[in-house]
């Protein structure tokens, strides 16, 4: 009897040990799976514009904003600007003059201070919808209020280091556009390749289509590929 009780006790201990091992294996697998699910590789989507350009206004309104309304969580969005880097004191020349440079800086400050594209793209789209008025303070204040941005925060960004900070943002942005070979406002690049251009009121180089659903389709496909999902 004592022998059988001893054997039974050893069996029970072994069973408990096995259950504990299975519990920790399951927990480890769950944690690994959770870490895997947390990996979210977004698709680069970049739009190159000039703030006082009617083509940029129409490009944002017709394609970029409707697209972002549907897939903003799947893209790494960036708004970049087109101009010329110079050796002058301010270092940047804008096609539509100094007021355009100020508009560009205002949008870059919005992106810098409010990196959520739903905020700074909405603000930028609001400004460019009335591009003739850029950089009027009243326009900036109204657009900031409409999209939940603090105008004083934007103003502090623009005036930081007596304007040198904002000009540095613009210089870097303009140089980046030059480095990737973009000269036309508006140029949309998807996954670091030109996806579509809107120039002189016409869509160009839009092999995949120029409608929001076309761009959304391409983004979703590239996003799924980036996650390693196959169907």
From TrEMBL:
Q: Is-annotated flag, keyword Secreted?
A: yes
Q: Does the keyword Translocase apply?
A: no
Q: Which UniProt keywords apply?
A: Glycoprotein, Secreted, Signal
Recall the GO molecular function terms of this protein's record: oxidoreductase activity, acting on a sulfur group of donors, disulfide as acceptor
Q: Where is the signal peptide?
A: 1-28
Q: Name one GO cellular component term.
A: extracellular region
According to its UniProt record, where is this protein located?
Secreted
What Pfam families does the entry give? GILT
Against InterPro entries, the record matches this protein to: Interferon-induced_GILT (IPR004911)
Query: Which family does the record claim for this protein?
Result: Belongs to the GILT family.
By what name is this protein known? Gamma interferon inducible lysosomal thiol reductase GILT
Q: Could you tell me which species this protein originates from?
A: Cucurbitaria berberidis CBS 394.84
């Amino acid at each position: 009897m004592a022998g059988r009780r001893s054997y039974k006790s050893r069996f029970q201990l072994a069973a408990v040990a096995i259950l504990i091992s299975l519990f920790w294996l399951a927990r480890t697998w769950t944690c690994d799976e959770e870490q895997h699910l947390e990996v979210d590789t977004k698709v680069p989507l970049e739009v190159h514009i000039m703030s006082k350009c009617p083509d940029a206004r129409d490009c944002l309104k017709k394609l970029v904003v409707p697209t972002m309304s549907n897939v903003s969580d799947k893209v790494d969005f960036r708004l970049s600007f087109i101009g010329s880097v110079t050796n002058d004191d301010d270092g940047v020349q804008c096609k539509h003059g100094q007021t355009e440079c100020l508009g560009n800086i205002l949008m870059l400050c919005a992106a810098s201070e409010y990196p959520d594209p739903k905020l700074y793209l909405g603000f930028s789209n609001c400004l460019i919808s009335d591009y003739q008025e850029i950089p009027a303070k009243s326009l900036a204040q109204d657009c900031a209020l409409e999209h939940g941005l603090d105008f004083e925060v934007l103003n502090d960004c623009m005036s930081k280091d007596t304007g040198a900070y904002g000009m540095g943002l613009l210089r870097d942005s303009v140089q980046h556009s030059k480095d990737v070979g973009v000269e036309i406002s508006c140029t949309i690049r998807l996954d670091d390749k030109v996806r579509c251009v809107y120039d002189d009121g016409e869509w160009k180089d839009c092999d995949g289509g120029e409608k929001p659903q076309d761009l959304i389709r391409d983004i979703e496909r590239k996003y799924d590929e980036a996650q390693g999902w196959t169907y």
